[in-house]
Amino acid sequence: MGNINNSGPFSYKEIEPLTDKANGPLLVRKNDTKEFFVKKCYPLYLADNLTTLQQIKQTNLPKVQEVLIEGDQLYLYEEFIHGKTLTEVISSSEVIETETILKMTLSLLDALIALHDKGLVHRDVKPGNIMLTNDGMLKLIDFDAVRVFDGAKDTDTIQLGTVGFASPEQFGFAESDARSDLYSVGVVINICSVKEYPKNKLSSDPFLREIILKATRFDPKDRYQSAVEMKTVVREKWKQWVNETHHNEDRLVLDNRENKNEKTDMDEPNNVKTPIRSFLRKYVPGFRTDQPWKMTLAIIYYVLMLMGLPGMVYEATSMTEKLLRTIEGFTIFVLPVLLLTNFMNFHEKIPLLHSKKLILRGLGYGLLAVGWLIFFVLYLLVTNGGAKR
């Protein structure tokens, strides 16, 4: 039955139930590391599948910490994900942009590629089982219906799945396989686009419609034959969207110039990503999340910095001193912001800064602060030493 740990239930402290369901998921904390996990109960026949799942390390799947047998019950301990389900996002959004849908689909397919490579079929891909974390990561969760593709059966032994999202074969027409999950992905895309099942209202979005149609064909032979194949098509559609959007932006800029003989930031519609807005969102801390309170704080900080830094430089009497004042101002005002606000997403390249453990992440930020302080002290020692000479 795989490598099941039978001796670990007392290493976790139960905090609170996460739903009102009997025997539903529980929030727990590991006693030694103080990390939070979700404890879920599964039927014993899923033991082999869950131990296989534990071996998969993929960013769009929750990390499985342990699979334990407690009495006659099977429990899975997986990472606790901070965020919202896609269901919540859809219900709270009037429109989800095409680009966002395509990017989410690519992440969802990456999760399925990892599962399918191990022979696992999720069988319950739906918005309620897709989490969007607070830092923008997509996670495919809940493995109550997971199974291994057999290939020698006419139908699934246990028919599971959510009506509307589950493929026809999950209700007795054939044995479900990887293409069954892709059917569900097609339905999810349509729900994100028009908030309806494809059979009720098919999305008219030119970048999504063909993907949805092919993914949700009744006969699995007419669908995408693998998540890799579907991902290739989705990525191509995303590239087409980017190219066409940029072309339209250029045309809008030209139209504005022709109509007003000049171009200002106020001429651009709010829903058009101008080059200036794109630059701010990509490179300028405080503007990359589009959150008003962060942008307000950033504007105040930058105004104060621009008021103080030029004054420091202006007071210097020689070019050498002006250069040193500029470096000093950059070190004091700019460098800490770049280090602590994940400039150009460099935190993802440093293990401590993207660790799931708060202690390690705090240590990472502490080392950054110490590194900045050491650099600043060395700079002062060097410049003061030079000045004395």
From TrEMBL:
Keywords: ATP-binding, Kinase, Membrane, Nucleotide-binding, Transferase, Transmembrane, Transmembrane helix. CDD domains: STKc_PknB_like. One of its GO terms (molecular function) is ATP binding. Its EC number is 2.7.11.1. This is non-specific serine/threonine protein kinase. The chain crosses the membrane at residues 295-314, 326-346, 358-382. The keyword Kinase applies. InterPro entries: Kinase-like_dom_sf, Prot_kinase_dom, Ser/Thr_kinase_AS. It comes from the Bacteria. Residues 1-280 form the Protein kinase domain. It comes from Candidatus Enterococcus palustris. The keyword Transmembrane applies. Signal peptide: none annotated. SMART domains: S_TKc (SM00220).
